[in-house]
Amino acid sequence: MKKFLIILASLSIMGYLAFVVFYFWDSSRNQECNCFEVVVKNSAKTQFVHAEDIVQLIKSKDLYPVGKRMDEVNTLDIQHAIMTNKLVKSAEVYSTSNGSIIANIYQRNPILRVISDTEGHFYVDKNREIMPTSSRFTVHVPIATGNISEEFAKDKLYDFAKFLYENSEWDAWIEQIVVKKNERVELIPRVGDFRIILGTLDNYPAKLAKFALFAKNGLNVVGWNRYSEINLSFDNQVVCTKK
Q: Do residues 187 and 210 touch, judged by C-beta distance below 8 A?
């Protein structure tokens, strides 16, 4: 008898809990959405995406949730709509018990800016993917100009830009990467009126190390404005062109 009463009491408690959960779940579904909050998570250094941009995007897709019943709001549709913005890396959209829809946005992080003669202006992000530029914000990353295809930008040029990005002394020293025909590269420094000829991007760490040694033992002695070109494309030598 005692065991039967324990089982009966347990079933009663489970039934009550199921009723409470269903009641509040059903009530929340019938509740009207009163807030759509967009939070751009990684906006401390990068500000490509603004909350109002996402709000306008959702309104343009006729998915704006405020004023709709919660059971009429499809958070997955809102998430998919947000992801049509090519500056967005990922998005999380969910509802709360107080009638709000929250959208957490994560922006894409560029590592290289490209101004191509044939492909136009674009960034390459940390996942080697092409992303558009923004009229609102420009991020400080290595900039490359010239005869640049998207494939070259995502491959060898990305690796070189990442090297500069991760080595602050070179990133601060090199102002621009210029790509000529046959993917041959020249560098424009911030100091000195000359160009550095790298040639191909093969073995670029050794080429840059060779230039650093030449700058220390050569340019610091004869002056930084004596040459118009400093060519590092040859093995075991630096070839300079006088002005």
A: no
